[in-house]
Design a protein that fits this description.
about 375 residues, alpha/beta, Rossmann fold, six-stranded parallel beta sheet, three-stranded parallel beta sheet, 13 helices, about 40% helix
Length: about 375
């Protein structure tokens, strides 16, 4: 029998009153179906005294423990968007003294219903879906397993309002424009001003990203040249290292100033090549690029799913975000521990920093709204 979340909230309220009267990175496993050991010695009494009431409301079976899970299309250790989300969920679980999350990665779109339902039956109480390409079954699953808290950072590629699903979104046009603009600033004095954007297979959300990137690049550096190259098999093959390497080498042979590896599993391989060749490169979502020592990034392009889930969980605990709600994060917002979505030059000059701040102000003022609307129309038409 399904337990009512309203009933759980009432219990939580009693616990909260009693508590007041008596009185927060392992390497990710990349196997396709990975279950981490979540055994804990913590007793229910010990746990319920320390978990905030808003979080305890997510405890489906009433044992005082919240089991998180992550479902991802790409590899969990991609060094890019997927790993950012996995790391964020791990950080949330650790912050609140909960077991390590169950992580299932490399899920194909046609496997999504099976894999997500398996997580639900495995005892997950909060399921984080890391991308729109595996979000198709959520309308049905959120009804079938309504006691589970379902969350998706689905982005523009999903575009559905689901009562049982909490969603975070960002604006790819805004973020990608800032990435292109930052790249243009970095290439201003470079001999080679050619930029290649490596993606999967010209999917609509890719098209929005690279069209906005190109607009920002040429606004900052009109002399720049730009090309998009698909490197994977349709659909959703962002981990084709061989295809991405071939595309990178072809671009380098023609002269290359910067590469945007808009990839998951193939991302770090291209960054390594760019580092070897002294070519400007950037992160694909993850907000820790400037701090890394194993790879060198010149730009952080932040659409960090980990920051998003950390911010979402903070709002859930505060009672300000629930299933059916959507949070939209925009450049200039203060999101999670790493701050705003958007592009940031790792070691900017004073002039570059001022130019980026000006761009952020223009975005916030809506000066690019018409241009971004046209990009979205072109990307998602038909």
């Amino acid at each position: 029998m399904k337990k009512s979340r309203i009933g759980r909230l009432a219990v939580v309220a009693v616990i909260a009153v009693v508590a007041t009267a008596c009185g927060g990175d392992d390497e990710a496993d990349t196997t396709e179906d990975t279950t981490e050991d979540t055994t804990t010695e913590t007793t229910e009494a010990e746990t319920t005294d320390t978990i905030p009431a808003g979080l305890l409301a997510l405890d489906v079976n009433g044992d005082g423990i919240i089991q998180f899970a992550v479902a991802a299309a790409g590899p969990a250790n991609d060094g890019a968007y997927v790993q950012a989300t996995v790391d964020g969920v791990k950080a949330v679980a650790e912050q609140y003294g909960q077991p390590a999350p169950i992580v299932v990665d490399k899920i194909e779109a046609e496997q999504a219903a099976e894999k997500l339902e398996a997580l639900a039956q495995q005892g997950a109480e909060v399921i984080v879906v890391a991308a729109s390409e595996i979000a198709g079954p959520l309308e049905t699953l959120t009804e079938t397993y309504s006691d589970i808290f379902w969350y998706c950072n689905c982005g523009a590629g999903y575009g559905k309002d689901v009562p049982g699903l909490a969603q975070t979104l960002d604006d790819s046009s805004e973020i990608s424009y800032t990435a292109g603009y930052a790249t243009g600033l970095l290439l201003a004095d470079a001999t080679n001003k050619s930029v290649v954007f490596l993606g999967c297979c010209d999917l609509p959300f890719e098209k929005e990203a690279y069209l906005a990137f190109e607009l920002g690049l040429k606004d900052a550096l009109p002399a720049a040249t730009f090309s998009y190259v698909a490197t994977g098999a349709y659909p959703y093959d962002f981990a084709n290292t061989a295809g991405a390497t071939e595309a990178y080498n072809a671009a380098k042979a023609s002269g290359l100033g910067a590469v945007n590896p808009y990839l998951d599993g193939a991302h770090e391989a291209i960054v390594q090549l760019a580092n070897t060749d002294g070519i400007v490169t950037m992160t694909a979502g993850k907000a820790d690029g400037c701090e890394r020592t194993d790879l060198k990034y010149q730009v952080e392009v932040r659409f960090d799913g980990g920051d998003y889930i950390i911010e979402a969980m903070r709002l859930i605990v505060d009672g300000k975000f629930k299933e059916g709600d959507k949070l939209v994060f925009r450049p200039g917002d203060n999101v999670g521990p790493n701050g705003s979505p958007g592009a940031f030059i790792c070691n900017p000059t004073a002039e570059q920093d001022a130019a980026m701040q000006e761009v952020y102000a223009k975005i916030k003022a809506g000066e690019f709204a018409a241009a971004f609307g046209a990009i979205k129309g072109k990307a998602y038409a038909g």
